Amino acid sequence: DAGITQSPRHKVTETGTPVTLRCHQTENHRYMYWYRQDPGHGLRLIHYSYGVKDTDKGEVSDGYSVSRSKTEDFLLTLESATSSQTSVYFCAISFGQGGQFFGPGTRLTVL
Amino acid sequence: TQLLEQSPQFLSIQEGENLTVYCNSSSVFSSLQWYRQEPGEGPVLLVTVVTGGEVKKLKRLTFQFGDARKDSSLHITAAQPGDTGLYLCAGERDSNYQLIWGAGTKLIIKP
Known about the structure:
By secondary structure, chain A is mainly β. Helix content of chain A is about 0%, strand content about 60%. In chain A, a hairpin with a 2-residue loop joins strand 7 and strand 8 (about 75-80). In chain A, about 40% of the residues are buried. Chain B is globular. The relative contact order of chain B is 0.33.
């Protein structure tokens, strides 16, 4: 199995505070993704990375930024959290056409 | 705009029955993937289909990719309570191995 960890696993924060979620992989894969999952919407891509310092926006990138300074780490930052960003966040890596492998998720609540 | 329509959204059946989940689009995909997700966990890849008309079997699960590579189906024979979960389809269309996701089918198999 792919080694993907996410931290923290749960977080409660207040509106207006910055939040950083971390995704760490041990597989040395080039492609990494951040998704959010909300009822009725399925998985929506926030940002993705195709290499160190190479990132691009997904369909719901407003209010989020990412960084990838090392192959193994992909960080997602909410600059100023809002209640609409309450969600479950998943990180994934890609094995190409073989599919994507997901981390365990981070449940974020913004009060 | 939901580019991949999954149906039904919810299905509750008795153990031993058969069922089919559909994933439809007007877009052509280079591959179509099916995932299963359990509560509190990330999606887990079940299968990838690549060739139009391709059929893959995974024990009691049969996956088919439409001839035009725009749609797919998942058929479960003699469903078991262990099949309960959220089933997601995802189509690969662009570069960087990005996926377009269906909203999911929540399946409950009652003993």
